Description:
Elements: H1 24-27, H2 33-40, H3 43-63, H4 65-82, H5 86-105
Amino acid sequence: MNGDSGAGVVTSPPPTTTPHKESYFxxxxxxxxxxxxxxxMAPDLRQDFNMMEQRKRVSMILQSPSYFxxxxxxxxxxxxxxxMAPDLRQDFNMMEQRKRVSMILQSPVSEHKK
Length: 114
């Protein structure tokens, strides 16, 4: 065998440049007061604030009319699938209303005098 075996040198194509992908740090303005405050905040405090924000979002969702409508639709679908009597749903709604009224009528323990 000699050096000229007829096989050419295999080369890979030149690497293509990928477009610059925006990262988190490209979007953050380090001079922002909000960013400075979050960066200097203690980790436990930051976690507490994050939990508070999550609870606010969940509360907003649970109190929204669209969520109520979706739950109502789901209960109607469930009734159709299980062939539940509509009276059962009305009974449930009445019990819930009574619970709400009884909770409102109860006075706090701190107002009772000895």
